[in-house]
Amino acid sequence: MKIDWKRKLSSRKFWAALIGFITAILVAINFTEAEIAQITAIVSAFATLIIYILTEGYVDGKREENNIEI
User: Can you tell me where the transmembrane regions are (predicted)?
Assistant: First the structure.
């Protein structure tokens, strides 16, 4: 079974689960709350960027698809 990475990376559920997992690991290895907050912010920023890029690519592709049909 092939994994649809484009769909998975644009999923908010995936990013929420990943952030939850990372946070739990950081707590388990005794990172400070400030460090956990910084790492969570970085992962969230990365997720936002990835979702934006994939969404814009999808919208642009649909726009081109519609232009070709006209």
Answer: 12-30, 36-54
Q: How many domains does the chain have?
A: 1
- How far apart are the C-alpha atoms of 37 and 45, rounded to whole Å? 12
Residue 7: burial class (beta carbons within 10 Å; 0-12, 13-18, 19+): exposed
CA-to-CA dists, residue 61 to 31, 45, 56, 65, 67, angstroms: 43, 24, 8, 6, 10
68 against 23, higher pLDDT: 23
In a domain, residue 39? The reply is: yes
The residue among 39, 46, 3, 7 whose CA lies nearest residue 24 is: 39
